[in-house]
Amino acid sequence: MTGPKNQPAENEKITSNPAWSSDTKKSWYAWVIFGAAFFMVFVSLGFGSSTKGTFLTSVTGSLGLARSKYTIGDALRYVTTAVLSLFFGRTEKKIGIRMMALFGFIFMTLSFLINGFAPKITDAVNSVIPETNEGLRDLMRYIPFYLGGILLGAGFAWASTTLASVIVRRWFASGQGTVTGIVLAANGLGGFVSEIIVTKIIFGADGSLSNEASHWQTACFVIAGLMFVVGILVWMLFRNEPSDIGQEAFRLKESKKKSKKTGDWEGLTGKEAFRKPWFYLAGLGFFLVGFCVQSMSNIAKPYIYDLGYEKSFVILVFSIHSLLLVVGKILTGVGNDTIGIRKTYAVCTFAAMVAFLSLFFLPRAGSGQFGEILFPWVYSAVSSFGLPLETVMISLMAAYLFGRKDFARIMGYYLALTTFGCAIGAPVANLFYDIQGTYKWIVLALAVMTAMTALLHEVIMGYVDKKYRKPALLGKAEREQSLS
């Protein structure tokens, strides 16, 4: 696909693409795509999302902003990502993967530039607003950050998880779970690296600067420059399809037994999927996954702080957690390609539930109980294998349930539903905190919801596997055997 014109029909493009033939040749450029996609996620999510907590304290402390009002920008980010994800498939067909990646990074670059210039923008606008209109003048202190949140959400929609998942499936004809897991693990690695770099820029090399004296604007400009350079690089390296350069998708050798368990099937079109009741039930499950898992990620650190644990200890626990998250995402992809998605999903769900329960039973610091030492580290380790439910697992399940025929479109819908769940989950969990004064009971409720969601998805996967996937893969194997 070289442009929006003269594109083949979706079904024709899939069935005629030699990447899916039995004698597919290996494409060396697939590994260039892999590296570019890894670097894209490393920078876009690693530097664009993982540092939000650091900016929260420094920006609000420096400008005297209310945290509750400032974080509305995060909510706008999630909503923007969710809305644009609904149209991901259509957008990709019109402008292609390369242009989506480029525009995504441009949006993220503008987001950090606007954040960096926010005080000057506010001063310029407020200079023409009468001092008597205090409400509007106060609102203008936040508007640049809200606009930045919208642009950041647009960038994430076009140049992060969904795009990486689509391009991996287009350039790798097998081993897609492993490759997807490695690429999306770049988020955790990027977050670990960016937290060190950005923290040193904002608070100084020795971390001695206060929020009021912090260099958060400099950090915004550095990240904006990084986003711009990486966006150009990714655009130069990406190709929409292997056929654009006369190559075919890379195929790893795999046993027949393994191929039957993890094989990719042609699947259903979007229109066909929309007629299936289980399309909507699975979507409900993805919404609940985002709701539960993002809530866990959002409240875990403040919950541990609330129980009196030392700041240095909590920082160590979550630093190790960031590194283990890289391992968790990679192993989730490997698990899909070895033991199959259903067993891998069960492992991730079990890990998430253990993480919730480790928080529920976490004793107050200084109580002398054994769990005081054990449970923070249990959360750090097992949550790293539960969090991939809202990233790697979305891509793998979308392909498992509906195949490759309309993958980009269906993946966009499911990512949108998951993102809506993320946007709502954390505020609801914090509302329970405001009412009850503790996260303890909402943590238990989220554990139960996670178990119910897992049961729902397991029933759906079993039904689809029996009625659609196995017959399709059996027919494919018989056709290949007849041709050989």
Protein architecture, described:
It is a single chain. This protein starts with 9 loop residues before the first helix and ends with a helix. Helix content is 77%, strand content 0%. It is mainly α. The protein has helices at 10-16, 29-48, 52-63, 67-70, 72-86, 88-116, 118-126, 134-140, 143-158, 161-171, 176-203, 216-237, 256-262, 270-274, 277-306, 311-338, 341-360, 371-386, 392-402, 407-436, 440-483.
Overall morphology: globular
Residue share in helices?
over 70%
SS-based class: mainly alpha
Q: H/E series, N to C?
A: HHHHHHHHHHHHHHHHHHHHH
Question: What is the strand and helix layout of this fold?
Answer:
Blueprint: H1 10-16, H2 29-48, H3 52-63, H4 67-70, H5 72-86, H6 88-116, H7 118-126, H8 134-140, H9 143-158, H10 161-171, H11 176-203, H12 216-237, H13 256-262, H14 270-274, H15 277-306, H16 311-338, H17 341-360, H18 371-386, H19 392-402, H20 407-436, H21 440-483
Helix pairs in contact: 2-10, 2-11, 2-12, 5-9, 5-20, 6-9, 6-12, 6-20, 10-11, 10-20, 11-12, 11-16, 15-17, 15-20, 15-21, 16-17, 16-18, 17-18, 17-21, 19-20
